[in-house]
Amino acid sequence: MGEIVQYLLNGLTLGGIYALLALGLYIMWEASKAANFTHGDIYMLGAIVAVVLTERGLPLFVSVTASVAIAAVVGALIERFFVRPFNTEPHSIGWMLTTIAVGMMIESAATQTYGSLGRQLPSILAEKPIRLGGAGVYAQELLLPIAAVATMFGLQVFYRRTRLGRAMRAVAADRMAAGLMGIDSNLVALIAFALAAGIGALTGILIAPVLPALPTMGALTGLKAFGVAIVAGISSARGVVIVGLAYGVMEKFIEGYLSTGARDALGFSLVILALLAFPQGIFGRGEVKKV
Amino acid sequence: MILISSPTGLRATVVAANALLAIALAGTPAWAQKAEPCIAGSWELTGPIAHMGLAVRMGVETAVDEINEAGGVLGRKLRVIAYDDQGEPSRAVDNARRIGEQDNCIAMIGGFRTPNALAIRPVVSEIGLPWMGVMSAGTRVIEWEQGTNEWMFRTSMKDRWVAPFLLKKALERSSNKKIGLMFEATGWGQGAVPDIEAAAKGLEVKLVGKETFNLKDQDLSAQLIRLRDGGADTVVYYGVDPEGQAMLRSMERIGYKPTIVSAWGLSAKLGEAAGTLADGVFVAGTFAWTGQLDARAEGIWKRMKTKFSLENPGQVSMPSGTANAYDAVYIIAEALKIAGSFDRAKMRDAFYKVKYNGITGTFDPAFELAAERHDSILPSQYKLLAYYKGLLMPVEQTPYVTK
């Protein structure tokens, strides 16, 4: 029983990371119909910038705020210089290559400057694990799934109740019509990328007290988050959170009852099968084009 | 060119012979001539394991500085040439060619990764370049499965000898004699499994679990739960720092506190990164720069400290590797003195006659002709280190000595 609870808790933590990153991909997709493959590296950047600033003596709150702000600026720059110029036609895919390349550059730069070994962010919530049903979990880890769900509801409120949120929805629905209504769709995309990067960085910061912040922590995690977003149907915030949490839990049960080696092979196989069964994603909706 | 005044026929013959000689000499590879007094390395100087390359470089440069200050070898100062391979075998192969053919160095010193050392085996054999490993511990680097190893030597640990050492230390510390194995899913980790199994058979102990993990895995709870449920009170670990740190965190999370006895993939940096969680973890090694040092080691440390702007010995990330590299340079220098010239083949032959008292142990002789004795550090010289208060110390100088 204890091990089942353990896998469930570990899975929810991991799933919380996937869900938060997939939410960022959802935000960017809605605003620009492009996915940012640097997102995993932004998650890493958030963690290591916070660690470095804290090591330099800045108070934790200041380090975290600065890290999120830096990530948001980086996200905006990526949209402006590495996505927008390569996303001019409806079926442009140049942004794929540019964002993958920028992600590799960020990881290399982090390895050169930060070092290859992990360091943790201090947090009183990660000092000792708490015991639950024969299993152990750091209170810090529980913040991840909670943050994913909270972010999902927060985005709903943001999209419905704020002027900027409604502008983003308008751009998502019809970029040209939104433009005709006076909405600057380029600015909306820029802000969406900054917002997503901020959430990505915050995800890295939330896990950094438990898992050491490493330059290599983002690439595979970001790729899995992308898989989660696609399987869920990237246009559904609720879907990416549900699938994200489920994917994390599934990985931990595969590790527990099969093997670590089977985790990624089986996980990605299930992603492919899910896409075969639900081409628009499990929670996705087909795009309707009026002709 | 030699010109002899002689009858036309003879003159033509001599000119032709000279021409042939000139062609033959031009076609003779540089290595067949006298080599240069340089010791060159293909090391991990940038990238994710750059701290390992730096650890080798520290030992090599410190020893070369000492030797040069004492007058050099055979009246010539030694030079160090360092090439970066970023841990990639293809780059190591390119570097080996450059070192052997263009730089024409007398010897090459290897880096951290076993796959790199394996990749350059045919290259150094073809060139006839003496190669000295100081970290990469793969058995097959020295004991080839095919062909004869004539040019590769090692002043480091060897996996085949490390396995029984680790298992013996694990058994000494196990209360219930139930040992588990955790190994990384790489050539090194997977390659160690048969060694550990053979050692377990020899010691008549059954492993209660063999668990693997991927590089970059950050949660090893599942594997550890299985070992815990199998009753393992001691875990033998084959992996490196990031996953080692993840393992310690996972153990704390699931409330599992076995004794850990690790191969030397764990570096001094783990103590810094994991803090008190690492305390009491044992690591096999050949040397530690922390704790009480003898006069010679103290002098070497002071020199290294100044040259590499270090603050404390804990910053020597791979203490055994640095010490091995230091001793390896002296073994090369001693071999050159015996050879009497910067001739690679003569120096290689002299390796079997070198007697040297190093910081990792006494070498008498350094190497022997038998394939397994192209390793100079014998199992009797292996040491157990342990993390204590964030530092990797000789176990005798920690509270864990009698555990």
Keywords:
heterodimer, A: 291 residues, mainly alpha, ABC transporter involved in vitamin B12 uptake, BtuC, two-stranded antiparallel ribbon, B: 403 residues, Rossmann fold, seven-stranded mixed beta sheet, five-stranded parallel beta sheet, 16% strand, globular, disordered N terminus
Description of the structure:
The complex is a heterodimer of chains A (291) and B (403). Chain A is mainly α. Chain A has a single domain, classed as ABC transporter involved in vitamin B12 uptake, BtuC (Orthogonal Bundle), CATH 1.10.3470. Chain A has 11 helices and 2 strands. Chain A has helices spanning 2-32, 39-55, 60-83, 94-114, 139-161, 163-173, 175-180, 185-207, 219-232, 237-257, 260-277; strands spanning 130-132, 135-137. Chain A has a two-stranded antiparallel ribbon with strand order 1-2. In chain A, α1 packs antiparallel against α8 and α2 (39-55) runs antiparallel to α3. Chain A starts with a helix and ends in a 14-residue tail after the last helix. The relative contact order of chain A is 0.21. Helix content of chain B is 43%, strand content 16%. Chain B is globular and about 60 Å long. The interface between A and B is medium-sized, with 35 and 30 residues.
